Amino acid sequence: MAMENRVIRPATDDDIPVIMRVMDSAKLIMRQSGNTQQWEGGYPSETVIASDIQRDGAYIVEDKGIIVSYFACLPSPEPTYHIIYDGQWLDGYCGVIHLASGDERLAYQRMI
């Protein structure tokens, strides 16, 4: 697939069901590669995605109108990263990209 067919746009509530399928595909890739510790217990949930959307930080990547990837880019502070071991945050503003995922059917392709 050519990169010119891909569009990044803000996610909407209507996108949540497809985003969840993309998340499930990403979880499958993680499990198959031996990552059994991350994204457990229903995380990320529809509630998490809806919160990202409400905070204007949720984005999807579409390829020819099909959602193939999701990511959230949110301003700091991000509570998940409040404690940093063996280091510290630099002073100033930063953003956090989290929940980056892609559809496993496209795993052989470079997503972004």
Question: How would you describe this structure to a colleague?
Answer:
The structure is a single chain. 20% of the residues are buried. With 112 residues, the chain is an alpha+beta fold. A four-stranded antiparallel β-sheet has the order 1-2-3-4. It is built from two helices and four strands. The longest helix has 17 residues, at 16-32.
Quickly describe the structure.
This protein has 112 residues and is α+β, with helices and mostly antiparallel strands.
Please name the defining characteristics of this protein:
2 helices, single chain, 112 residues, alpha+beta, 4 strands, globular
Uncertain stretches: 107-112
How much is the radius of gyration in Å? 15 Å
Oligomeric assembly: single chain
Q: What is the H-and-E element order?
A: EHHEEE
Mean pLDDT equals 79
Strand element count = 4
Number of helices: 2
Q: Major β-sheet, in short? A: 4 strands, antiparallel
List the helices and strands and how they pair.
Elements: E1 6-10, H1 16-32, H2 46-54, E2 58-63, E3 66-75, E4 95-102
Antiparallel strand pairs: 1-2, 2-3, 3-4
